């Protein structure tokens, strides 16, 4: 790690330094010369340095302006590196490509913004080919969880609606400077080119899922009473005494589509 740059807590900075972990990540990503690739939060360039030789261009989004000069220096002032000093939560990734399913995104995401950033990217899923992220292990577990598991919740449903999810491997705190207090994990998210279960109204779908998991200890009958009446439960063939974490993505899509049909 650089002796000049002190990791900033407000940016959630934990700089990756373990060569074996870096190589595992690069192998998983398998960058190709013509890939349209963006890295979120490159920091001092631990991953960036290994991606650059393999691609024709790499765009990086970095919020901390003070780290950018060292990032550029660590990457030998490569002409293939294009730095955007912006907040990834507000960045419009369509600036990098308009071609469907073409953008590859990688990043060691700060724990404090990881979930809102994932939702921001899901809003732009149509242009994304795949995403490889280092996240808090607990967040990765939530994304990959199946119905009935303790970690299963709103994030699981929303991510799995849009993406195929692959929990790759765990990374211990010692791989970072400073070491975080929790384990991390690498996840691969690949947006479905065609949704397996499509909601007729995705805004309504998100609202239904959010409402259900805001009251996850209640039965479906109680937590979705503003949306679904008894006749609709019978039509759906879903037991209303189940709890939100017992339903899969298809169930929430079916509920949403029934609500939308009932509103017509």
- Total domains: 2
The side-by-side strand order for the widest beta sheet comes to 4-3-2-5-6-9-7
State Rg: 20 Å
What is the third-level CATH name, the topology of the largest domain? Rossmann fold
Proportion in β-strands: 15-25%
What is the fold's blueprint, element by element?
Elements: E1 15-16, H1 19-29, E2 36-40, H2 48-51, E3 58-61, H3 68-74, E4 81-84, E5 103-108, H4 114-122, E6 128-136, H5 137-144, H6 154-162, E7 163-171, E8 176-177, E9 184-191, H7 202-214, H8 220-223, H9 230-236, H10 249-263
Parallel strand pairs: 2-3, 2-5, 3-4, 5-6
Antiparallel strand pairs: 1-8, 6-9, 7-9
Helix pairs in contact: 4-6, 7-10
Provide structural commentary.
By secondary structure, this protein is of the alpha/beta class. It folds into two domains: 9-191, Rossmann fold (3-Layer(aba) Sandwich); 202-263, Helicase, Ruva Protein, domain 3 (Orthogonal Bundle), CATH 1.10.8. It is built from ten helices and nine strands. The protein has helices at 19-29, 48-51, 68-74, 114-122, 137-144, 154-162, 202-214, 220-223, 230-236, 249-263, and strands at 15-16, 36-40, 58-61, 81-84, 103-108, 128-136, 163-171, 176-177, 184-191. The strands form two sheets. A seven-stranded mixed β-sheet has the order 4-3-2-5-6-9-7. The chain has a two-stranded antiparallel ribbon with strand order 1-8. Strand 5, helix 4 (114-122) and strand 6 (128-136) form a beta-alpha-beta unit. It starts with 14 loop residues before the first strand and ends with a helix. Mean pLDDT is 93; it is low at 7-12.
């Amino acid at each position: 790690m650089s002796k000049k740059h002190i990791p900033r807590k407000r940016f959630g900075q934990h700089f990756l330094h373990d060569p074996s972990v870096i190589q595992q990540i690069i192998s998983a990503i398998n960058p190709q010369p013509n890939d349209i690739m963006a890295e979120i939060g490159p920091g001092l360039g631990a991953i960036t340095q290994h991606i650059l030789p393999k691609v024709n261009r790499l765009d990086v989004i970095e919020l901390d302006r003070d780290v950018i000069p060292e990032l550029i220096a660590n990457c030998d002032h490569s002409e293939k590196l294009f730095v955007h000093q912006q907040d990834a939560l507000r960045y419009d990734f369509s600036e990098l490509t308009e071609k469907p399913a073409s953008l590859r995104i990688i990043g060691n995401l700060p724990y404090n913004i990881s979930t809102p950033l994932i939702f921001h990217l899901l809003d732009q899923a149509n242009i994304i080919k795949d995403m490889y992220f280092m996240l808090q292990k607990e967040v990765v577990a939530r994304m990959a969880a199946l119905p009935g598991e303790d970690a299963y919740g709103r994030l699981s449903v929303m991510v799995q609606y849009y993406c195929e999810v692959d929990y790759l491997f765990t990374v211990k705190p010692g791989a970072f400077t400073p070491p975080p207090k929790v384990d991390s994990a690498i996840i691969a998210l690949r947006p479905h080119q065609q949704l397996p279960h499509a909601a007729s109204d995705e805004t309504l779908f998100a609202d239904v899922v959010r409402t259900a998991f805001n009251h996850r200890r209640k039965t479906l009958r109680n937590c979705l009473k503003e949306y679904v009446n008894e006749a609709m439960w019978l039509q759906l063939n879903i037991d209303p005494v189940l709890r939100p974490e017992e339903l899969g993505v298809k169930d929430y899509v079916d509920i949403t589509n029934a609500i939308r049909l009932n509103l017509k």
